[in-house]
Amino acid sequence: MRSSIKVNDIVIDDNSPVFIVAEISANHNGNFDNAVKLIKEAAKAGVDAIKLQTYTADTITIDCDNQYFQIKQGTLWDGRNLHDLYKEAYTPWDWQPKLKKIAEEEGLICFSSPFDKTAVDFLEDMNVPVYKVASFEITDIQLIEYMASKGKPMILATGIATLSEIQEAIDACKRVGNNQIAILKCTSAYPAPLEDMNLKTIPNIAETFNVVSGLSDHTIGISVPIAAVALGAKIIEKHFTLCRADGGPDAAFSLEPDELKAMVKSIREIEKALGTITYDLTDKMKNSRAFSRSLFVVKDIKKGEIFSESNVRSIRPGYGMHTRYYNDIIGKMAKINISKGTPMEWKLIDN
Fold it and tell me: Whole-model pTM above 0.85?
């Protein structure tokens, strides 16, 4: 059995329901009431948790306008300065304890991605139950160690990491005694193209690293997370907004409330359908065997007449002899008169 993580009272492992996270990120657009509405809409949609991001422009970067701090990698944010973008996108820290309380009142777990040690300390004071390492922070070994040292479960997004860097991040957690690790397949493109998702990596992550695996998704729509669940993802994280038309740094690849609700519903349906590995017939399947093929007399037959291809056939329903006996019957003699529509039985054959 692969490892598990425990978030509050929720155990996440191979046999547990999928842990569904709505990522608020910058989609409050700097408005506290919007953040509250996002939490309440996420709760209505049926998610398990909401996730915040804990940074300021100055804790995640520096205020510098040279070429290195200009975004030009073919993203939604090209032409922006990093410090300006993060200044717009951050979630004020004084909101976060209030949002956590509201989330818990709505029955949701609230946690965050910290982006430096001061953010970890702040979230420790909030007593968050789990930490998320954001895609671009998976190579920050010192930050990961500091987060992991708090003894909370660690969810890491692979984002921009190579195979060896994923292992290095896992080793950093284990080095400080933290073995509660989940790894989310993530494609750091915004929005992420379908052909770059490579969802088959999700079960391989679980197998390779002996961890809980899942998906941090930046595609448009809900098809990809649903497919990820079918492949074994046990955690799904998806960005969430009240309305894409409201704009904001992450709006383009975020779900609206009805879409989030549809995703949750589909994931729960897929969970039921996945079931277990079995070849046993359910009661409904057994009942349906009445409509399968079997051997029937299809013409009136007189006593002494020979069973042939013209008077015995494999047809529906399934009340006659099994079709495997067809060749054993053909050429034999009828023991009694048999009317059309009679299920074949051994007692009808004159031995």
Answer: yes
